[in-house]
Amino acid sequence: EKILEVRDLKASVVEDGNVILKGVNLTINSGEIHAIMGPNGSGKSTLANVIMGSPKYEVLEGDILFKGQSILDLSTDERAKLGLFMSFQAPEEVDGVKMRQFLLNSYRNINENDSISALKLSRKIDELSDTVYLDKLFLDRYVNNGFSGGEKKKSEIMQMGLLNPKLAILDEIDSGLDIDALRIVAESINKFKTENMGILLITHYQRILNYVIPDFVHVYSQGHVITTGGAELAKEIEENGYSMIEG
Ligand code: ADP
Ligand code: MG
Ligand code: MG
């Protein structure tokens, strides 16, 4: 099943009018892992944010379809309720809300008609913290507050595990991770992935793709996909850099 279809998408930054996305095309089917690789500043995070409906960007042309329906008119919250999820490149600290409560609230918000008890949800959250090797003490701390880079990424990936989205957009989930945390985060992604889920893995580096094997690799530059290949394309980029592809 087609989960996401991005068609000739052009988008600008509302604040300054700069056009960042210059005609992006991308189709993700259920069960597929797509990696987007590209240099810094090429618009990868912008693409993720526009798919999620961030009000900081304006769509100028093209369309974003989720299971065949345009989502351009939907708010970020409505998109999340449909099953879109994004982990942030730089997760924010939330003062006054503890991790466990935050996760419970996110689950309740997205699954309005689910009658699972708070106790069961809380147990599920405990299990998820084991999966990502995040000490349960973190569940009683304010969200991301004073967390290390790796701990923040683990808390992001816990959300993915809890929410079980249909489309998971992971924006540089590998950045700032040492090799052990990278392996744990990657193994968690593999564990949380289902046959009904599409994954868009945005990364600057090839190394996470040794653990989370992509079906497709898209090289992204200056606001559009310039070439698409299989997992081997990521290795070529690692060896030769982006310059050979940008020409
Ligand atoms: P990448 O994730 O590939 O590193 P980004 O999408 O973060 O790239 O940024 C692409 C370009 O768009 C950069 O020049 C960045 O400054 C600009 N940009 C993105 N979002 C904003 C914003 N909210 N306000 C101003 N400029 C932005
Ligand atoms: Mg960047
Ligand atoms: Mg980015």
Features of this protein?
247 residues; alpha/beta; Rossmann fold; 6-stranded mixed β-sheet; 4-stranded antiparallel β-sheet; globular; binds adenosine-5'-diphosphate; binds magnesium ion; AAA+_ATPase; ATP hydrolysis activity; Fe-S cluster assembly ATP-binding protein; nucleotide-binding; FeS-cluster_ATPase_SufC
| CATH second-level architecture | 3-Layer(aba) Sandwich
The CATH superfamily turns out to be P-loop containing nucleotide triphosphate hydrolases
State the helical fraction.
25-40%
- Could you name the ranges where pLDDT drops below 50 across 5 or more consecutive residues? none
Q: What is the terminal-to-terminal distance? A: 35 Å
Would you tell me the structural class of the helices and strands? Answer: alpha/beta
Bound molecules: adenosine-5'-diphosphate, magnesium ion
**SSE run:** EEEHEEHEHHHEHEEEHH
Query: How would you sum up the major sheet?
Result: 6 strands, mixed
Question: Which term fits the overall shape?
Answer: globular
CATH topology category name: Rossmann fold
Alpha carbon gyration radius? 18 Å
DSSP helix count?
8
| CATH hierarchy, class | Alpha Beta
InterPro entries: AAA+_ATPase, ABC_transporter-like_ATP-bd, FeS-cluster_ATPase_SufC, P-loop_NTPase
Pfam family, one: ABC_tran
Domain ABC transporter: 4-247
Family: Belongs to the ABC transporter superfamily. Ycf16 family.
